[in-house]
Design goal:
Blueprint lengths: L10 H12 L2 H28 L3 E6 L6 H12 L8 H30 L28 H9 L2 H13 L29 E3 L7 H6 L5 E2 L4 E2 L6 H17 L1 H9 L15 H4 L8 H6 L3 E3 L1 E9 L7 H12 L4 E9 L12 H4 L12 H4 L4 E7 L15 H14 L7 E7 L1 H9 L4 H4 L10 H19 L7 E4 L5 H22 L4
Parallel strand pairs: 1-7, 1-8, 2-5, 8-9, 9-10
Antiparallel strand pairs: 3-4, 6-7
Helix pairs in contact: 3-19, 4-6, 4-8, 6-8, 15-18
The structure holds guanosine-5'-triphosphate (GTP) and magnesium ion.
Length: about 525
Amino acid sequence: MVRPSVTDDDPITRALEQFQESETPQQRAEAKARSDAIDEEINRQRQAEKREQKPIKVLLLGQSESGKSTTLKNFQLIHSNKAFKNERASWRAVIQLNVVRSIRLILNLMNAVQAASAYPSPDSSPIGESSRPPSPWPEPIPVLTPEHLKLKMRLLPLFQVEESLLRRLSPSSANEPEATHLHPVTNLPNPSRTTKEISIHSTSPWKGAFGRLLTGRTSVDSNQGIDFDDPKDPGVVLHNCSEDMIKLWNDPTVRSLLAANQIRLEDTSGFFLNDLERVTALKYVPSDDDILKARLKTIGVSEHRFVLKSGISTTSAKEDSLLTKVREGNLLSRDWRVYDVGGARSLVRGNFSTFFLLLIPPPSRTAAWAPYFEDLDAIIFLAPLSGFDQTLVEDPEVNRLEDSMLLWKSVVSNPLLKQTNLILFLNKCDILKAKLEAGIQFAHSVVSYGDRPNTFEATSDYMKKKFAAIHRQRSPVLRTFYCHFTSVTDVSSTFRILDNVKDLIVRQNLTNSHLV
Ligand SMILES: Nc1nc2c(ncn2[C@@H]2O[C@H](COP(=O)(O)OP(=O)(O)OP(=O)(O)O)[C@@H](O)[C@H]2O)c(=O)[nH]1
Ligand SMILES: [Mg+2]
């Protein structure tokens, strides 16, 4: 049996066949030329579409702990209010680690006091002053009671928790020779450099570390992915130590030890000691605010993709036409790529890591990095103002604020970035305010500040002018100075600022694509 071909009954095919049979060679050539022209036009339009739809690329830059990853978290929250839904179990672990780190710092201080008081004072020492290491303590050395020592012993299980959390979160970074993000206790008789900071390489699937372990368990909180009945849950040990941790943190001797070493734990990254009861509760689930406060150092570079909407306000006739074009072109939703890089320098002095790769001109810059840094629409540069009285963890001789200004200078003056919008976030304003209110004198660290008032308004304005002057003097082309005072751990104020920034970047992107 002969099966009818599919085209047998197709009237269009039949008509075309008849038409082609009656075509002259010249007509056929003309038809082909027309068809080619149409194909060419379609291709041209596709290319144009591609150009117009090119994603908006934003790079977050700044020294380590400046707030880059926290700004990224704000982008994630803007993108979706369920941003951290599947990650809460892992963030809970990071927060638990942050708590243990703060406690460890206090216990290290107590060890140092014990060691210092083990030496007899020069008056009673038969061999005199020379046998005694220089003491960082104001005399007399604060006295630890037997109760303090018992407290210390009862908190030892926390260190096992730390090891196990680190293993689960970052098996690959366990050998990273990194000092702590906490205030380095360098002037103590036995300075402890043992508190490695937890860092996660951008390629590590750490956010799944806990989720994977939980699959199939019936006790898992299905909304948050946290298994509260896991017998190995570090939360149990933390909960059992909770009362002792609270006692330690509220102890007057401990507070005076911290003060004597000029350590304000409350200003350090990942500080949760004022929330111990809440964060060590057995059923603790981190809030968005907690996740923003959690500290996890970034290594490498990671790309984050979002579709973000931009509502461009119309204030002029020109902008009205822009808005129409944007709407006609359906460009109100745009693809965004936000790049978060690790800001820490290598511990080898002068050897800069991720950050400075940006400043090396191609082709010396490795090809693998190129896609991240070509065609950048904007750099959000974070400079934490609160670092005015701190030094870098990586290099204790470098003042943090001064370092931020040097980095800003190199970014601003870089000819490769002259087309890129630079948006400066003078960050950690909340900590700056708290420090000034606690009586810390800005002028002690920033000598050029002189006898101006020790207020937030005056100091922040002074620093803004400094950064603006660098921008004006060093930029290879005339550019607008965009600057915001930020506290990126504050979701609502950051939401407003990022909304402005988003609109600005989209507007510039459209201008550059000649759509306006
Ligand atoms: N109080 C306060 N804390 C902040 C602010 N910005 C960031 N932090 C905290 O500072 C710590 C460091 O912030 P990150 O965003 O991890 O810093 P980073 O720039 O990504 O650092 P690296 O990954 O090491 O390059 C985190 O614990 C944040 O919660 C701020 O404006 N105010
Ligand atoms: Mg980071």
